[in-house]
Amino acid sequence: MTQASPERANMGFIILIVAVATIGGFLFGFDSGVINGTVPGLQRAFESTAVGTGFNVASMLLGCAFGAFAAGRLSDLIGRRNVLLISAVFFIVSAWGSGIAGGSAEFVFYRFLGGLAVGAASVLAPAYISEVTPAAIRGRMSGIQQIMIIIGLTAAFLSNYLLADAAGASVSAFWWGYEAWRWMFWMELIPAGLFLVALLFIPESPRYLVLKGREAQAEQVLTRLFDRDVAARKVEEIRESLARDLHRPKLSDLVDQTSGRVRTIVWVGIGLAVFQQLVGINVVFYYGAVLWQAVGFTENDALFINIVSGALSILACTAALMLIDRIGRRPLLLIGSAGMAVTLTLMAAAFATGALVNGTLQLSDEMGTLALVSANIYVVFFNFSWGPVMWVMLGEMFPNQIRGSGLAVSGFAQWFSNFGITMTFPILLASIGLMGAYGLYALGAVVSFIFVRAMVHETRGRELEEMAG
Q: Which residue, of 49, 63, 339, 417, is most buried by count of CB atoms within 10 Å of its CB?
C-alpha cells in the first residue's frame, strides 16, 4: 500500500482544498448557531408556543437529516464537489429567506432548505478532505472541519451579540427598519457567497473520478496533490479496491451479502453519529442564550457567554488536532465521554438546587458558578473529542465502495438525533426541568463510553483503501 507522505505532497494545494472545503464547516456552524440569538424574535414575530418555537428552531435539522442522506448517495452519482456547489446555493437562498420570512411556515421552509445544505456539507466536507490528503495527516486535515464549525458558531454568536447590542435588543428595529434578529440571518450571505465562488477553484475527488472510470482525470488531480509516481500508484490502488466489487455503489451494499445482515461497520457509524447528539451538545449551541437567561443572566450576558464558550471550543479542537494523528481517534473519544459524563452530572446537580421565581430558575451564586464553569468544561471535553473525531471517523472509516452509502445512513442518523434532542429540550425544560434534562444527557455520555470500548476500532494511519467493512 502506497503511503503518500506529507513530504511528497503538494501541501500548498492540499491546504487550499482544505480551506475551501471547510468553508462548508464554517457555514454549518454559523447556520446552526445563528438561531441561538433569534429565538425571542421568532417567538414575538410568529407568536409561537413552546412547541412551535421548538419546531421553528429544529426545522433546519430535519433538512439536515435528509440533506446528509441525499448528499452521501448523490455524491456517488455526480461527485463530491458538485454536491457542495449545490449546497452553497442552498445556503444563500436559506439565509435570505429566513430573514425575510413573514410567518412560521415560510420560515420553516427556508430553514429546511438551509438544513439540506448543512447536512450535505457536514458529511461531504470531511469525506472529501479525507480523499485528497495523505493518511499521516488525514486526521488533522479532516478535523479542521470541526474547528471551522466552531469558528462559524462563534462568529454567529459574536454577530448576534453585536447586532442585538447595537439595536438595543434582538427584537428591536435596526437597519432599514428590519429587526436585528433578521439581520442575524442575513450576515450569513457573505460566507455563503464566498463558498460558492471558492468551490469553482478546487478539483473533484480522485476516488470519485476512478469510481466513474475517469482515471486520466484522477491521475491529473493526484499528480497535482502528490507527484507523478505516487499518482500512478494511487490510481492503481483505488482501482484495485473498487475491483473487489465492480457494480455501481448502492444502499444495499451496506448489507453483508453472505449473512444478510447490516455490516458491523455501518452500525458503528450510526452509533458514533447518534451518541454525538445524545450527550446534548446542541442544546448548548441552539438554546444557549435561553438557557443562561433561564438561570438569571441578561440577554446580553447570555450572548456573551456563548462567545466565551466558542473561544474555548476552538482551543479544545486545536488541541485535539495536535493529538489525533499521534494517539489516535479512540482514546480521544473515551476521554471525551468520561469528561462529559462528569460535567453534565455536575450541571444537573447545580440545577437541582434552583427555585422557580416568576417562571425563572434562580440559583445561588455558588451553584450558578458551578453550572457556568461545568457547562464550559463540558463544551471543552466535547470539542476535544466527539466534536472533531466523529466527523473524521465517518469520513474515513468506510471502504471506498460503500463510503457514499455509509455516510448517507450515518449522516441521516446524526441529524435525525439532533432534531430529536433539539425538539424535545423545550418540552423537557417545561416538564422535568434543567436537572432532569441534563441528567438524561449525562446518561448518554456514560453509555457512549461503553459503546466506544466495545465497538469502535482505531483508524489512525491507515490508507482509505485498507478500510474494511
A: 63
